[in-house]
Amino acid sequence: MKKIDSKIPEGPLADKWNNYKAKAKLVNPANRNKLSVIVVGTGLAGSSCAASLAEQGYNIKSFCFQDSPRRAHSVAAQGGVNASKNYKNDGDSTFRMFYDTIKGGDFRSREANVYRLAECSASLIDHAVAQGVPFAREYGGYLNNRSFGGVQVSRTFYARGQTGQQLLLGAYQSLLRQVNTGKVTMHTRHEMVELVVIDGKAKGIIARNLETGTLERHEADAVVLATGGYGKVYYLSTLAMGCNGSAIWRAHKKGAYMAGVSWIQFHPTCLPQHGENQSKLTLMSESLRNDGRIWVSKKVGDDRLPNSIPEEERDYYLERRYPAFGNLAPRDISSRAAKERIDAGFGAGAMKNAVYLDFSKAIIAQGVDKIKAKYSNLFSMYEKINGIDAYKEPMLISPAAHFTMGGLWVDYELMTTIPGLFALGEANFSDHGANRLGANSLLQACVDGYFIAPYTIPNYLSGELKTDKITTDHPAFAEAEIAARRQLDRFLNTKGKFSADYFHKKTGKLLYEKCGLSRSKENLEEAIISLKLLKESFEKDLLITGDDTLNSELEKAGRVADYIELAELMCHDALQREESCGAHFREEYQTTEGEAVRNDSDFCYVSAWEWKGAQQPPELYKEPLTFESVELAVRSYK
User: Fold this and answer.
1) Where is the FAD-dependent oxidoreductase 2 FAD-binding domain (predicted)?
2) 70 is catalytic
3) Catalytic residue among 208, 331, 519, 586
4) pLDDT tens digits, residue range 248-266?
């Protein structure tokens, strides 16, 4: 079995990032104009990286499939962004944030990466404030904080329920500044369809112009993928309809390893599914759990209105099972606890697939105006969708597929197993282990783009100055373009009877049932067989209307083809990990009380997978995880 080098710097944990920066290679300002970088994705990770590198003097080509960088899905992370600034003087520190994140990920992430995330968090808040991000403030003008799941301090900075949107506006204005200087060339409505690898290095992409259908060649000295997560593989998820995993999957098929792909987070605070024809689910911010209490009736199949159920007949099950953290238990634990109550027959709502999130006690204690100041846009959104005033009646919430802890394997420099190919934000696996704590997603995306990539990418580019310049006339570009064209033609010529959405729904339903909130050996083995059959059906039964120009159905087909293959890898990953950890809950490995049982002696490693071909099983590589600054412990929130 091969070894993979994570390139963790030497020295004590607190010194590793400074040691790296002190020794990182630099590029002379006069030489930076000779180098170019492609950045795919314009969310927080992509925009911040593109703006930061352009500010240094590199030539950047920025790509997004939306009509504007502002459409990136980072806007949907509503509740806040974490930073260990200890403004509340309640015991927070860089080490405590590091430990909370390591523990929250169930000890399945690298110490060095996680400590760097906590270390850089304080700088992010100062940077965002300088950009004009309107964080909430206390009366005296200090920035305010609230708490999120899995922690016992207040370290989450927020802008009402619009934190992701406001942070993205800050990154967007930085990006547009560089567009105006000419250092960034924007390519909106372009989708990456192939990665170009020359002499083992990432040297460009093939992009499809989504308005004309034209395939375009773009070369660069390095390529950055900041394309978000693949939670939409479940079809019903909190993600926007256009979100996809194609960029990282195409890179995977060119040699970039995927890691931790079955570690999928189900958000506990989502609006429940209300019908079979629904295309997505709506996320309600986890910040609501600061003041909302979660409960179900103690009576199976209770059809009474929630306000008519007496207090003594309510089961505040998170407070009962996890008294130390209560309603702020981590997302994986909270989601599984909700599923357990729903499956046991205590679910609420018309489809009995939800639990209650109740603000009545908080409103009595604080007043309705205080609750409105914190959450008014979320309450308004809930009423607009459901026609219910949550100031007077509890919200209905349910777990839903949300965030992917897995992604492309990257080393400490955020470089994949393909030299010159970097992955930032949710597109990589690096910081969250088997479960992500709330408000760490915005943090990782920003830290990767603003504070890490601007050091690690130049360190790589310094070695490219002396190499021969690659042009799009290179045969590798022609080969990649032909492969992309061949796939598009195959979709258009299949002439089956089912749409891409049909296969997407089939894939998602299969994953929800077999590789969702819980998994078992039997279900995973069945899922792998079923996905192989679904792929065969997709290849002969797909029907795409229209032509190869402006055609959203053709776009979907490519994304769904990737999802079916990715889903199979997810099941392989979940099958080989014979333990329960974080969001990966194997039914065979649990306590009598239904808590996860981790196996540190056999599975304390990152699972990294190599693509071996369409008809071949993937090959597993193991990156051992060593813990020098924390002790492996049973993850308890009781």
Assistant:
1) 37-442
2) no
3) 331
4) 999 999 999 999 999 999 9
